[in-house]
Amino acid sequence: MNPQRALPESGADEASLERLRALLRVPTMSHLDDAEVDWAAFDRFGALVDELYPLLHGALERELVAGHTLLYRWRGASATAGDGPVSILMAHYDVVAAADEGWQHPPFDAVLTGSGADRVLWGRGTLDDKGSVVGILEAVERSLAAGHTPENDVYLLFGHDEETNGTGAEAAAALFAERGIRIGLVLDEVGAVVEKLFPTVDVPIAVVGVSEKGTTSFTLTVEQEGGHASTPPRDTATNRLARAIVRLSKRPFRARINDVTATMIRTVGAHGRGPLKFVFTRVGVFRPLLVAVFARMSVETAAIVRTTTAVTQLSGSLAANALAERAQAVVNVRIAIGSTVDGTRRHLERAIADPLVRVEAISANEPAAVSEMSGPRWDLLAGTITSAYPTAVVTPYVQTGATDSRQFAPLSRNVYRFSPFEMSSDERATLHAKNERIHVATWFTGIRFFETLLRRL
Ligand SMILES: [Zn+2]
Question: How large is the average pLDDT for residues 96-119?
Answer without folding.
Answer: 94
